[in-house]
Amino acid sequence: MISFHTRLLIQALFLSGLVQAQVSSTSNIVGFTTVPIEGNPTGTRLNLNSLSLTTNIDYQSAATGLGTNTIIDSTGSWVEDAFNGSNGVYYLEIVTSGGSATGAGAGTTYRISDTSIGPATITLNDNLAAGISLPLTYRVRKYWTLASVFGASNSAGLQGGTNSSADQVLLWNGSRHQTFYYQTSGIGGIGWRQTGDQSTDAGSTLIEPTAGVVIKRGQSSTLNVIISGALKTGQTVVTVSQGYNYVGNPFGAGMTLASSGLYTGDSATGLAAGTDAASSDQVQLWNGSTYTTYYYNNTAGGWRSSTDATTNASTTSIPYGSSFIVRRLGSTSFSWKMPQHPSSL
Predict the structure, then answer these.
(1) Buried-most residue among 17, 27, 213, 330 (CB within 10 A)?
(2) Do 69 and 47 share a structural domain?
């Protein structure tokens, strides 16, 4: 299993109270995580990562009105285009809906297309989820990008070079992985590039809050990448579609198969169970060299691995800092409501 070591400033809250100065009215608990990108002396190594921290909260408030794809906030104090356009790409997260942290749509996120004043309105690229209602609270954050995570000039220290010689960052777009690398010379100049396009700067490529970040390292040494940001709190919703879904654990703590919320007993809201791995939706966890497949056995009444139908695997860990695959066999999607980890925050 890939190991990750996170040092969150929240630790100081329990040790000396130092974090209190870092917690603003937006509940922005900040910290940093050290993500080891492991190498392989004899070839390449795949690292299935997640970022574990979000970007800092830029704005948090309560909505006073809702539209099909708009949030109206009569107390909004932003300027025109504060969260779009030349200021970068931002997203809005529903924190509570109908006054509840687990209400309809709580934990869903939406890319912001426009921010206006008079009245203060945030317009979203997509419609709000069904059932979202007032009272409602929300947060606004900027997306992570390749440049903000690894540095516009690759300050993180990934091996640069050409598409074939550089370390690669793979991001899932819903149907396939897109491959990025840091180009150091040649046609197209220096900077982040996507395979197949040597000239276009790819540093602004967005990394979704729950994205799995796969890094293919071709060096023998382990590289420690340090990321600073905010601790993710609250329920998080991920759409699980037919086929393979590459998901990252967005929290600063691990979870288990049992605590993940993936199995609900209803295939319309969670994974479909079966009598074996072939007849069930699957969770595939990377152990550093291969995937181990898990499923919910509706005969035994618990999580099992594909190679052991007897042992209860409910306590199998999904570590913080890791990503994994959720494989959906059926044609319908569901909204996975991922409970906050740790639940004590």
Answers:
(1) 213
(2) no
Cβ-proximal residues to 220 (8 Å cutoff; 6+ apart), any chain = 39, 40, 41
Ramachandran assignment for 343, one of left (phi > 0), alpha (psi -120 to 50 degrees), beta (any other): alpha
Q: How many domains does the chain have?
A: 3
Report the DSSP beta bridge partners of residue 240. Answer: 334
For 156-169, the pLDDT digits (tens) are 999 999 999 999 99
DSSP string over 143-156: PEEHHHHH-TT-TT
Question: What is the domain range of residue 89?
Answer: 57-142
Q: Is 64 found in the same domain as 35?
A: no
Chain length of the chain: 345
Residue 161 contacts by C-beta under 8 Å, 6 or more apart in sequence?
181, 182, 183, 184
Torsion of CA 323, 103, 233, 52, to 10 degrees: 10
For residue 18, pLDDT over 50 is answered with no
Do 95 and 183 share a domain, yes or no? Answer: no
